[in-house]
Amino acid sequence: MATLDALDARGRAVVQVDGVAVALFRVNGELHAVADACPHRAGPLSEGDLVGYVVHCPLHTWPFDIRTGLCSRHPGVRVPTFEVRVQGQHILVAASGSVPAP
C-alpha cells in the first residue's frame, strides 16, 4: 500500500506487492499498475518513457500497454498487471487478480 503523495511529479511510484516490485502510473487521473520488470531483460518499466498508456522499457524500448500489460511489438508477450483502487489518500494494489505473464 502507498499513499497518493508517494507519486512523483510524473505520477509514478514503485511499491512492493507480495515481494514483487510494482510500477504505478497515473494517466488522465486514473492509476494503473504493472510489474516493474520487463519480461525481456528485467528493465525497470517505472523508468521508461510513457506515451499515452504505453510505457517503453528503458533498456530496449519494448512497448507495454499499462492497462492490459500487452506488448505491441511482440504479440503474446505480456507484463503482469494489477488491480488498483484508491481509498481516501491510500493506493491499494491487489496481489490477487493480477494477470500473470505467459
Automatic annotation (TrEMBL):
Residues annotated as domain Rieske: 1-93
Pfam families registered for this protein in UniProt: Rieske
Signal peptide positions (record): none
GO molecular function: 2 iron, 2 sulfur cluster binding; metal ion binding
Gene3D superfamilies: Rieske [2Fe-2S] iron-sulphur domain
Highest taxon in the source lineage: Bacteria
UniProt keyword terms in alphabetical order: 2Fe-2S, Iron, Iron-sulfur, Metal-binding
Name the record gives this protein: Iron-sulfur cluster-binding protein, Rieske family
Organism: Pseudomyxococcus hansupus
